[in-house]
Amino acid sequence: MRLSGRIVLRYGILTISVYILLTFIYIYGFKSDTRKHSFKTDSIKHHIIKEPEQEGVKKLGFLPEGNNDYKPTLDLIPKSLRDKLEGKIRVQISVDDFRKSESIKTGNPLIDLYGESDYMLSGEYGRGLTFVAHEKDIVEQLMDTYHVNVYASDLIPLNRHVPDSRTAGCQGVKYEHDLPNASIIIPFYNEWPSTLLRTVYSVINRTPRHLLQEILLIDDASTEEILKDPLDEYIENHFPKGLVRITHLPTRVGLIQARIKAWQQSTGDVIVIFDSHMEVNVDWLQPLLTEIKKDRKTVAMGVLDYINARSLEYFYNRGYLTRYGFDWNMVFFETFFRQDQIGPKDYSPRPGTVMVGAAFAIDKLYFGEIGTYDEGMKVWGGENLELSWRVWSCGGKLVHLPCSHFGHIARSQPYTFPGGRRQVELFNYKRAAEVWMGPYKEFIYQALPDIKNIDVGDISERLALKEKLHCKNITWFLHNIWPELAIYNENVQAWGSAKNLGTGTCLDNHNYLFQAPDKLYVHPCHFQLGTQGFSLTKDNLFKTSLQCVVAKVTQPMLEDCIIGPRDKWTHVKDGYIQHADSKLCLDLKNDEPIMNTCDPSSETQKWQFNHYVP
């Protein structure tokens, strides 16, 4: 019996050890490829993961410490594929030949052998890379310059697989063969070559050929030499003739104008707007085209997954679907869908509010009919909000498709804006507000005081377009499409900043954007509505821009007004703000809002709004 017990114990320990080992291998071998540098041999090794052996990649381990002179390359074929080549890659077939069958070979192994890569290569199946020791320091220098780990990008195969991130029900969805075809528009400015090309290869390898009309690369006057003649030559030799077309703009015009120029060149039924650092997922295009085929006035949006800028790991939350919103500061943010917006199936289309700047599809002719982008806007910023307001107000709609996914590298932009980024954004916001926001533009100008005196030029053409399209006013949009955003002075008893007469401070929402409960604050009064705008409605809701004030026992909090508890409050001018259910009053203690027993003599329970409505 003792011997048997020892055997069981030993086998138990062995089983636990194997489990721990397998867990370790999974974490370090499949979730993140860890690269180690040996200072003795100046060699770079992968821990578990195989080296992709891309011959054009200069290994950082050979760089002197402190040197970030790492050069881009287009020679990015893994050695395992290169060994199968006979000479250089020279694709001879035309785009028409390419579309005839999914099985026709192009002569480019990154296309022809897609799906046959060694799954243990660095970054395959969306795994990320982690760097250590001296390499980590060099990567940090590269990150400071490019805001993305360009070395990791060069090590990861251009045609890597990514995990299928779609909602579970999407795998069984069948799409019509007869769908509109699409032109994929990818503007870029000084994008790192491997990041740009990985975007292109992902589209080619994961899009049904008969639906892919063309990929239009619009170079917005990049200054990197490799993105000129060398990139032209690469495109000529590596892709079917006419499938990938590149245009080099002589002067920099910005993202908005570059997209318009690509739309003018496009020949597809539908245009799809992309950034130059994305990777599409499985069956990404068909859901978008299906919705547009049903209704050509639809802007079809997929789900953006995340590609980590440092490790290039393709990351997603299974079943999480993003909706987008904005506040009076013109801050664009992610939020959840309301329950009434969720259809009968987890992959049913859902209505959108505003669109993200990239990763949407729209009928080419409809895009022209509705006025494309506002050509008076500069570079980038605010164009997604303006187009969203216009589509909804003028008879179209925005739709999120849970079965369409693409990964996007979230990074801060590594380049400057002519005139300064913030000034360009404010200029664009004001143009949009002057055309669409009517009387509510004053809320934007109070939230963004620097915007008021900006001269945005002639907007008469945009106003005439609004008239021509018989667009609804913005009140309709705010009531029906984005009711989460408070109209401070509509159906209210009082509005403005809520000032405490005892301390002279004002309630502040800290620019909080989201639905979950969060703290309410007080700060010195500046009376700008963006953070200190509140209103008490006629139905006794106490609201700030996106949330209601609710009482959590003795703590006043901010929580979503639509899906939250919608607490009721009463207020006497220059007096108390009382919670209807608990009968407690809003008070201050140690410069923090609290709920307290009502005391008419307490100065810190007396509150005053800027405006009272009779």
Walk me through what this model shows:
The structure is a single chain. With 614 residues, this protein is an alpha+beta fold. Among the domains are: 2-70 and 121-155, no CATH class; 492-612, Trefoil (Acidic Fibroblast Growth Factor, subunit A) (Trefoil). 27% of the residues lie in helices and 23% in strands. The protein contains 17 helices and 28 strands. Strands 4, 5, 6, 7, 8, 9, 10, 13, 14 and 15 form a 10-stranded mixed beta sheet that branches. Strands 21-20-16-28 form a 4-stranded antiparallel beta sheet, with no helix packed on it. It has a 3-stranded mixed beta sheet with strand order 2-1-3. It is elongated. Residues 1-11, 18-32, 34-53 and 58-67 have low confidence and may be disordered.
Helix residue percentage: 25-40%
The tally of strands reads: 28
CATH class of one domain: Mainly Beta
CATH topology of one domain: Trefoil (Acidic Fibroblast Growth Factor, subunit A)
Overall average pLDDT: 89
Strand content: 15-25%
Structural class: alpha+beta
General shape: elongated
Low-confidence stretches: 1-11, 18-32, 34-53, 58-67
Gyration radius, rounded: 28 Å
Strand count, sense and barrel status of the largest sheet are: 10 strands, mixed
Distance between the termini: 90 Å
Number of alpha- plus pi-helical segments: 17
Secondary-structure arrangement, i.e. CATH architecture of one domain: Trefoil
